[in-house]
Design a protein that fits this description.
By secondary structure, the chain is of the alpha+beta class. Helix content is 27%, strand content 28%. Strands 1, 2, 3, 4, 5, 6, 7, 8, 9 and 10 form a ten-stranded antiparallel sheet that branches. A hairpin with a 5-residue loop joins strand 8 (182-189) and strand 9. The N and C termini lie far apart (47 Å).
Length: 239
Amino acid sequence: MKKNLLLGFAGSALVAMALTACGAGTAAPASAPPSETATATPTPAKQYSTEELVEFAKQIKAADGSTRAAVSGQELVAQYDPLRALTQAAIEPTTCKDLGTLGVYQPIAGSTSAGTVRAKTGDFMTAVALTSGVERDVLQASLDTSKSQVEACGRMTISAEGQSITATTEKAEGIGSVPGTVSFKTVMAFPDGRTGTLFTANAIKDGVLISATASGNNGEAGGPEAAGALLDQAAALIK
């Protein structure tokens, strides 16, 4: 294992961390059996291509009004590799090794994806990821997994070389305005006494799963607003 894995993470990853109406059918006669009653078929949500998601990501602005480069596919996954390095450590509970509660982007098999480059604006490191290209129920299943993961991994201990990071995750409210948003707050306590706070917000808009994150050192003021602004911007672009 790499020497001083946890302290190295504390020094750099805090900065890197610092996501139908149914039409009224004609009424059936009272004597008609249930099988003859008309039912409306919901219109499937559009599935967006990688290229379309990239165009959305290019239009999303940071809090200072700047735009960021868009990344897609494996590039989107790769920018979270520094956080995935923590899987080299001992993690308890052992079922929490995918680190979804720490805002690490979780790709969905067969999907299309794009997002903004992770970068710091003001006191927070922020990013947004967009996932589509699969049925809405697949996106919903991913969102449901995130919720169940928080229940199972609400408190994690990440240990290496006699040192430990404690990560505590709970549901958060009031991040963004997209209906059905699922949000979490994670507080990480590092061996040297520093702490980091990470906010994640996830919502499905039509055929796109939007995941926004904002993280910073030693505090949380402004984090929910930063993540919520990215989430709302992305949702407004999907029409």
